[in-house]
Specification:
9-stranded mixed beta sheet; 350 residues; alpha/beta
Length: 350
């Protein structure tokens, strides 16, 4: 399902005046997490009259849907909507349509808002000389199990963790180069979001497709159009790091799909040269490290080169798939053995 989003209003209020915020939670069959997330929103320092909440039930089972309805009813400033087709981007877009605030503050159902989360969002927007289109902040970990010793330090962020303290414009010298926005703690000006037709529904989790970067794509799209996209660590949530994710198999899956998502996001933003200039290096890495794909998926041995292989495989698979599409449109016959449909590592696709 695709939806066309249209702005319902134009915000012409001067900068510095108060802003309204709608918190949005998208959930699918995770009532235990949702309960705690809603409780964190009930504890906000600004009080329930200062903001509203939209909970989007993304095609949960009948039993879970009934419990979600009960949980939402306990919050007087919350409303519940349901979408009958699974997909995170689709659910976020439905939440934007239902929101009433100037800003939509997205928080994952397995995250807890800091007590001053809403207050800080309002403060940051009012302080800035130019109203931002995108704000994101810290996502601090709540560990359900200890982080394994074999986990690479450079990949803490892949668990949706952002610990950097500071503020500044993304993709400038004001913030670390590797820093980007996460949907677990993502604040979007509603008018700007609707004006660009919302989150790209070709990105984001959808059934067995573990594509990501819908949050990054939206932020860079708005920033490329001349709007501000900023990080501010005062806007903080605490994100539950699920124990089931702390395995080699999960990490390899996640990196494979991250490689694929990176290609798709760049192509959708029109940054095609970045893909084609990087493709030879990624393809060479796939060839050089190919024997590592024979290792058991649950083994943590040689995890460093293996996660790099998984990322490269996802990157190459998505890039060559794009080449296949272009060749087909041009009437060029392509050998299926030359351009594989998928180069997923053994055990990494589930």
């Amino acid at each position: 399902m695709s939806m066309t989003l249209q702005p319902s209003y134009t915000d012409t209020r001067p900068q510095g005046q108060s802003v309204s915020v709608t918190a949005c939670i998208c959930t699918h069959n995770r009532t235990h997490y949702l309960r705690h997330c809603l409780e964190s929103l009930r504890q906000q320092s600004v009080g329930p009259d200062a903001f509203d909440i939209v909970v989007v039930d993304s095609k949960s089972s009948p039993a879970a849907a009934a419990e979600i309805q009960h949980l939402v009813a306990e919050s007087p400033n919350a409303q519940l909507i349901r979408v009958e087709e699974a997909g995170l981007s689709l659910a976020r877009n439905a939440g934007a349509l239902a929101a009433r605030g100037d800003y939509v503050a997205y928080i994952d159902d397995d995250a807890l808002a800091a007590p001053d989360w809403i207050e800080q969002i309002m403060r940051v927007v009012q302080e800035l000389p130019v109203r931002p289109a995108v704000l994101s902040g810290r996502a601090l970990p709540i560990w359900e199990a200890p982080l394994p010793g074999w986990w690479p330090d450079s990949l803490r962020g892949i668990l949706t963790i952002t610990e950097w303290e500071g503020r500044g414009e993304y993709r400038t010298s004001e913030v670390p180069a590797e820093l980007g926005p996460y949907g677990a703690n993502l604040v979007i000006e509603r008018a700007a979001l609707l004006a660009v037709s919302g989150f790209a529904e070709d990105l984001g989790r959808r059934g067995g497709l573990l594509l990501s970067d819908e949050d990054v794509h939206l932020a860079w799209k708005l920033q490329d159009s001349g709007r501000s996209a900023r990080h501010d660590s005062r806007i903080t949530v605490h994100h539950c790091i699920q124990a089931v994710r702390l395995t080699p198999n999960w990490l390899l899956q996640r990196l494979y799909w991250q490689g694929a998502s990176s290609v798709l996001t760049r192509l959708m933003l029109g940054h095609n040269r970045l893909v084609w200039s990087e493709l030879p290096r990624r393809l060479a890495l796939v060839v050089a490290l190919a024997p590592l794909a024979l290792m058991p998926a649950e083994s943590s041995a040689m995890i460093g080169p293996r996660w790099r292989l998984a990322y490269a495989q996802g990157f190459v698979s998505m890039a060559l798939g794009e080449l296949r599409i272009r060749a087909k449109k041009a009437g060029i016959r392509v050998n299926a053995h030359t351009l594989p449909e998928s180069a997923a590592p053994r055990g990494a696709m589930g």
